[in-house]
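Sequence only, no structure available. Ideas?
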Amino acid sequence: MTDRDERPVAGNDPAPTPFAPAAPGEVTVYRDASLIDGTGAPVRRGMAVVTDGPMIKAVLPDAELSSSDLDGAEVVDVAGAFLLPGLIDTHQHLSTPPNREWAEEMMRRQLYGGVTAIREMAGDLRQMADLERAALIGEIPGPDVHNAALMAGPSFFDDPRTWQVTRGTTPGTAPWMQAIDEDTDLTLAVARAKGTGAVAVKVYADLDGPTIARITAEAHRQGMRVWAHASVFPALPGDVVAAGVDVVSHVHMLAYQLAGVRPATYRGQRAHLAEVYERFLDAPVDAIDALLGDMRRRGTILDATASVVARIPLSPPGAAGMAQDVLRRLIDRARHVGVEICAGTDYETPPGDPYPSLHDELDHLVHAMGLPPREAVRAATLAGAAALGQRATTGSVEAGKLANLLVVAADPYEDIGHLRHIVTTVKRGRRHDRADYERADYERADHDRADHDRARAAGVEEGAPA
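Reply:
I predicted one. Tokens follow.
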């Protein structure tokens, strides 16, 4: 026995990992697939994808498979089905407020709903760091999690959400939720954020353009991404983009660039929103193109979050009536100019819904915002990987990338709703069959009904003497 074989000093065994990534040497061949590779290219029929452990080993025509490709491999026939990259939701808040049981259930639904990676756009990173670890090694089923630590001006930290995610400490002082002013040591602030396990800084509110630029420069120096709201107030979209951030969220905020209105704080924006929308719609259709052109040149990605605006009515009421026209025009112009658009949600559907919110966002992008299904698929795959800063490792079906795959029964290029026809999700080479999820939910519901019936019967019996 070597030291490696001995039990840990504490005497306990590690937690089981039933959802662990496939091990190197575990080879699977997905045969006769109709391949959608995530790049926006047309469907390729009769393709094979070979995975080895957590990685894609080869992508080739099925007819070119050799005996060495098949020797010792598990063969999965996906004839008639469509194979594409696992989906990526670029805007989630699973830890605002922290609720471990709910978050685990949402992550389980996301994975079995085709989502293999998410951006957690700030929250209680004490909880999310452990959920990230648990999903990565397979203690629980869930997507890979890429966490952001939040930075904002001091005036933002009376927001109740900041209290919820910093319980036990003080909002604005926690490493994952920091107040920034002219006296902040940004080298230390970014290092503290990085120490939480975050891969990015989220620039949220109540900061000016020069401060955002300093945060961005220091975060990039320390190897972190910078994800920001499209308007941070008093910083407007042009200030945020010029600061060099990697991704901007919430497409409707871009309308502030043309409004001639600069709210002093993030909270003050809604009072002006109807006026902002009206001025934007009255402007020439290409008036926003200069800003979008700067985004394209810099490689700034647009996290549109289009459907959340429809779900959460904006105040004042007049703004809500114009919102869809504003978002549609902004997305049209972003596409026209060549800005990369990724698919983020900023919400989750209720627990009883069988699919995660990303499917609703994709439906909305296609049916309300006019994206062709092919572009919507790219937004949720390769563009999402670019937003994560992980384009080299995921987001498309290519040899050398992670074996994060989705098999659906019908062509999502014909109907984006076909992404709900899930056969299996593959995360890091491990299959998660949709039938297992639905069977478990059925058994759970049956168990809950039985518990309810027993409790009801016990209550009747206890109450009978009275």
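The CA atoms of residues 362 and 376 lie 6 Å apart.
Hope that gets you unstuck.
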